[in-house]
Design brief:
It is a single chain. The chain has six helices and two strands. With 145 residues, the chain is mainly alpha-helical. It has one domain: Arc Repressor Mutant, subunit A (Orthogonal Bundle), CATH 1.10.10.10. Strands 1-2 form a two-stranded antiparallel sheet. The longest helix has 25 residues. It is globular, with a radius of gyration of 17 Å.
């Protein structure tokens, strides 16, 4: 793999490297049971408590895929299910204090990586890269805009 590689392959490699570094940052704080796929659920809950269907929609996944992840995170003590005040039959998923702490740690790690990358290539190039990647994403996925 090199600079002439396909954009998607380069994007996946960068995402894997960032994820590895976030995992290392979590482990340094003693959080060793959060898997990379859990981080996606954390990001989906950044907007506040949500039903599993809303989390799945935010992730571009099915509720059948997200449900077991939420079950696992509830068992691990990172998420809880609360009654939905708008529908007594539904449940909202939200962070527990431990889950909020893990999500905050992961976010701080990701922000530190962003700063490191900006230092590596310069702020202007980092901003151009972000804008270019977003343009490519929205060009392929009209729902991302």
């Amino acid at each position: 793999m090199g600079p002439g590689s396909r954009i998607g392959a380069l994007a996946r490699r960068l995402a894997a490297l960032v994820t590895d570094r976030v995992q290392e940052g979590l482990a340094a704080e003693g959080i060793t049971d959060v898997r990379p796929v859990h981080l996606r659920v954390f990001v989906a809950l950044d907007q506040g408590p949500a039903r599993i269907t809303a989390i799945a929609e935010r992730l571009g996944a099915t509720k059948q895929t997200v449900g077991p992840l939420v079950d696992e995170l509830v068992r691990l003590g990172y998420l809880s299910r609360l009654p939905d005040p708008r529908d007594s039959r539904a449940k909202l998923v939200d962070f527990t204090p431990a889950g909020r702490a893990a999500a905050t740690t992961a976010q701080q790690c990701a922000e530190a990586i962003d700063r490191e990358l900006a230092e590596q290539v310069g702020l202007a190039r980092a901003q151009d890269c972000r804008a270019t990647l977003w343009s490519l994403i929205t060009g392929l996925d009209r729902s991302a805009g």
